[in-house]
Structures are given as C-alpha cells and as structure tokens.
Amino acid sequence: MGSHHNGVTGSAVALPDEGGPLSYTVAAVQGPVRLRYFAPPEHLRAYFGSLYLFTVSADTYADATRADVPQLRFMLSGGGQYHFQDGAVMPTPNVCLLGPTMGSTRFELDQPARVLGISLLPAGWLALHGGDASALADRLCDLAERAPIFTQLLEQLQALDDEQVEAMAALCWDTLAGMVKPLRGSTWVLLEAIDAWLMGEGSPRIEALVETTGLSPRQLARLANKYYGAPPKLLARKYRALRCSAKIALDQASWQQLCEEAGFYDQSHFIREIKHFIGLTPHQLQTEPSAVAQLTLMRRSLGSDVAVINRLS
Questions:
Q1: Cα separation of 89 and 207, whole Å?
Q2: Would you identify the CATH topology of the domain 185-292?
C-alpha cells in the first residue's frame, strides 16, 4: 500500500469562483487513486470544509483514513464498507453521513469507485443532522432516509462525469446553502473558542478553555460532545495527533523533537497516539505514507480558503 513521497504528484490550480474571490482546487494522483479538493464558497465556509472527488480505478482497494470531522459522501459508483476503530463494520449507503471519527478508520472498496465528499464543520453538522454528534461518532447513517432531497442530488451528480466536477460542486453547494440555518451568536462564539483551543500549539489544557468560555468542565463536555462528537480531552488528543502528523509528513519535522514539544509522556506514548488517530506510525508517515494519508494531507494546501480546523482534519 505504501509508497514514497515521489510517488505522489500534486498541484494547486486557481479556478475562478463565480461571485467571489479565486477559489483553489488541489489535485493529486497516486497509483489507482485520484483526489481533487475544492474550497467552499465564502458564504458556506463556516459550515463546511472542502469538497472532494475521490476516484479509484483498481478492482479492489483498501486504505485507512485519519480521525476526522464528519463527512457527507455520495457514492457516485462503486461500494464497500468501513471498519471503525472499535471493530464495528458497516457497509456504505449511497448517501453516507459519516459521523466524527475518533480513531483511524479503514475502508474497503470492492470495485472501482467514484466518491464525492464534503467535510462538515460543527455548524454544518447541525444543519444536516441536528442531533448530538457523539451519538454518531465512529458510525454512519443513510442520509437519504432522513432527507429525500439527497436522493435527487445523488441522481443529478451521477449524471455528470469527472470532468464536470465544478458543476457537481455547484449542485452540492446550492443544495446545502438551502439547508443551513444561522446559529445563535453565543453558539458561534463557543465554536470559535473551541476551534482556537484545539488549534493551539502543544497539549491544550481544559483549564484554558474553561477560562476562555466561562463554562464549567461539565458544560464544556456536554457541548463538545454535541458539536464535535467527543469531550474536550479526547478532542485535544485527536487534534494534537493530527497537527503532529502533518508536521512529520509535510514539513519533515523530527518526530522525536515533536514528541517533547507537544507534551507526550515519552516516545512510546507518542507512537501509540499517532498510530491510533492516523493509522500509521511516525516512521511510516515519514518514510512510506499510504496513498490516502498523503493525499489527505494535501488539504492543507487549500490555505485560508477553508476553515483552519479543516486544513488538519
């Protein structure tokens, strides 16, 4: 599965975005896998991260994805199943809402596949699902059963080919724009505070979040579960691992040095955490990251056109 850095080709291409500044796509190919990323239009950036088209030309394919934010995925063709970190195995529905994942998740495709996906930020989760995110952590549901509009959107997307991906993106953004609802001001303030806390350097301390928000640890645990799918302490571990993995794989940072800087107990603790959340050891990330690990990291190249938290997860 693994291949060295020179096996991936990537480029950031500027494309005109109707009615707004330039948006960027990041396209990369490795072996039978192709992944193209698109930044959301400005008015939806607080709700959704990047949109992506993932295609696999091989008859069968398996890989692992890092712990991540929720994902809305349309199976344009092909099918398969997810293997969650707790051992649960679930087949993917054609309109799949994947909850937030708190560990590396393996997927298997049993035929060539085309998947259009969109990362959901907490506000996007509230718009599409509305329930407690922790109830769907490391699980998935069939979104077409909850909202029939997605069956219609799937059929429209399936009628387009891979060269019409900008049209696919426009269809998705139009549909989603009709579903988002403004949140209360206090909710936005809380989400911004938690995002900033998770993106801070080192090992985020719950005391700092208590101080910033004025909420008790118990209130924060309830709200973080609802919006992010896990309590603050687990979220802090997840995002610390995601931050460190990006530095190892993209910036060629010394993982031994990161281990000290990021507040891990020792090297074996660091290795366990990276393996749990990313699915690869620090050494594998540095020397032979899998295709999906490499291509996922390219999301960072979208820069300020996507929410900070979405560049990492």
A1: 37
A2: Arc Repressor Mutant, subunit A (1.10.10)
5-180 belongs to which homologous superfamily?
A: Jelly Rolls (2.60.120.10)
The label of the residue with tokens 């290795």 reads 271
- C-alpha Rg value of the chain to the nearest Å: 19
Q: What's the residue count for the chain? A: 313
Confidence label for 164 from pLDDT (cuts 50, 70 and 90): very high
Q: What are the structural domain ranges in the chain?
A: 5-180, 185-292
| Cβ(33)–Cβ(5) below 8 Å | no
Instruction: List b or e across 86-112, with b for residues whose CB sees 16 or more CB atoms inside 10 angstroms.
Output: eeeeeebbbbbbbbbbbbbbebbbeee
Residue pair 312/243 in contact by the 8 Å Cβ criterion: yes
pTM of the model: 0.89
Residues 310, 49 contacting (CB under 8 angstroms): yes
Query: Strand, coil or helix: what is 2?
Result: strand
Report percent pLDDT > 70 for the chain.
Answer: 86
- Please list the residues that pair with 119 across neighbouring strands: 71
Phi, psi values for residue 251, rounded to 5°: -100, 0
Residues 291, 8: contact at Cβ < 8 Å?
Answer: yes
Question: 247 is written with which tokens?
Answer: 């530095």
DSSP H or E stretch at residue 54: strand 48-56
CA dihedral sign of residues 201, 204, 210, 213: positive
